[in-house]
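Co-fold these.
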Amino acid sequence: MNKPIGVMDSGVGGLTVAKEIMRQLPDEQIIYFGDLKRCPYGDRPLEEVKKYTIEVADHLVSRGVKLIVVACNTATAAALPALEERYDIPVIGVINPGARSAIQNSNNHNVIVLATRGTVDSEAYKNAIHYINNDFQITSLACPKFVPLVEELRYKDKVVVRIALHQTLKHLVNSTADTIILGCTHYPLLAGEIYDYFGGRKKVIDSGHETAREVSSVLTYGKCHAAPGNSRNHLMIVNGDSTRFEYILKDWIPFIDYTIEEIDLEVY
Ligand code: DGL
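Predicted complex below.
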């Protein structure tokens, strides 16, 4: 079925998931929605994030997508059950795939979750991991400095990044956890620095890989993979100005065909 896959995030972070979907499923066309004007979601009350997420998902559905990927942990924590109930197409969040991946990777059942305040407060990772295996020890930490580093294009400035990492992560340096979940889709842009900060001693989990695998499984079960030769011109819808978005898109996923459309949804 050659309908597109809808992918959404508050900003550019979901591109880390979109990139992995493009890699694993090259015949699928993506409609990506970045809600830049209302980013960050992570510091907002979850009820507000839920309203924004439903509005964005409704927009993707109106564009005829066959499946929605909520490529934002905060939006997944706030709205996944509501979206699953609202549509008759599959909706996939990033928290269950990230939790599964951490369970597969951790040998000592001790993991750290780095995420936004909203995701940490929701305890969504803790619940998702304990639902599968209650033996896990989980330490969650809100990292409010990380999303602005990415959205303001400072993620390549190693000095600025290291200072922010040290300010945020210094209490975890001696943690015995062997695995870190990047519980925000913006953080994979800092993954190398986070890995180095812990001296290369901890596995760093980006839920994008496992999420793309889940998308692939769902398309297989539903027999709705796109046919080879399907259009690979991806549509990027940006709420607000697209300049920063396009900079990161070109940097993170170079050499793809895309069209950008700016729209104007209200901040309320
Ligand atoms: N990328 C979003 C997430 O995965 C958070 C960014 C934001 O705070 O808007 O939670």
